[in-house]
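Fold it.
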Amino acid sequence: MKNKKSKAVLSKKAGWIILAILVILDASLDLIFTGGAGLQSPVWEPISNFLKINNPLFLTPLILIIFYFGIKGSAWLARKVDKVSIKSEELVLTALVLVYGLFDLWLILVYFFNFSLFKSHYYLIPILIVIVLIYSLWAEKKLKESS
């Protein structure tokens, strides 16, 4: 019989590989279609200026390091608050992959197919929050059932 835990979340290795590909894809799309304008956002501009980086691909290692610590901290919270004692890190990683993948899909639709349902990527935030909450509750339930 297959392990139910493996169906609810990605393995760490697969999750990190997919996340790295998604970050590189996002940076590449930004570079190709906006000339790296994503680095002028209020969040990334001070960092890129400080590091003297004008190519979003060069920020990929920093973004992955930030994600690493964010995932570790969020997994710790999931263990303490939600009592997800097994595969909490994989749960958070899979949720991040899901959100980042959907965001990259939206970028591809905008850049390649002129998709204009949303005028700004900020309108996606509540939708992505709802999607990740639904997934997280489902996966958390599956993980607790299988333990």
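The radius of gyration is 17 Å.
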